[in-house]
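re: that chain from earlier
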Amino acid sequence: MIKAIVFDMDGVIIDSEYQHFLAWKQLFKKQKNVDLEEKDFQQLIGTLDQYTVKNYFKKYHVRGNALKWRDKKKKIYKKLLQQKVKMFPGVKQVIVKLSKKYKVAIATSSWRKEAKIVVKKFKLQKYITKIIGKEDVRNHKPHPQIYQKMAKRLGVKEEECVVIEDSIPGIIAAKRAKCKCIAVTNSYPAKKLKKADLIVKDLRNKKVSFFIQKN
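^ sequence. v structure.
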């Protein structure tokens, strides 16, 4: 029986992937006068910032310290997060509804502080039980550690969790952790998300609540 719902954040709760790209774009333009293309970023959704920047270094023949660039990007993104990021339509209503029956949490590859900004910005404090960010785990998605750790913190078994994801690494992490997984097509087309147990375009779809209840 399902006891907990664990949300990824970027691309699931908030429409933020484009802001992540804008932060990288601003940074590379300022530092190296390099114009990044959004199509390149699309292939990197769900990966850690230090891997994203290393990919850009290689493609654009740029040298730099990946961790220092990551931290510079983090500062730019934080401003964009506070000013421009919006929730996906209907997601708050879904979270509120689910929180009445299940433990609801966020497990994100973003920093925990960024997740707390989102929770506060959209007034989700009453509904989100726990938050785990990238600094809370050693092994990142597609490794299952983040979802294994979240299940432990929530006091439930992994198979009693439904994870809601938008990225390929996130889905793989959820399934490796033996969680059920619902994928939403905010970042990738359905054909790339086939490893999920259920794929929807919108979390308000009735299939979501039916899937959770039947498991």
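The chain is about 45% helix and 10% strand.
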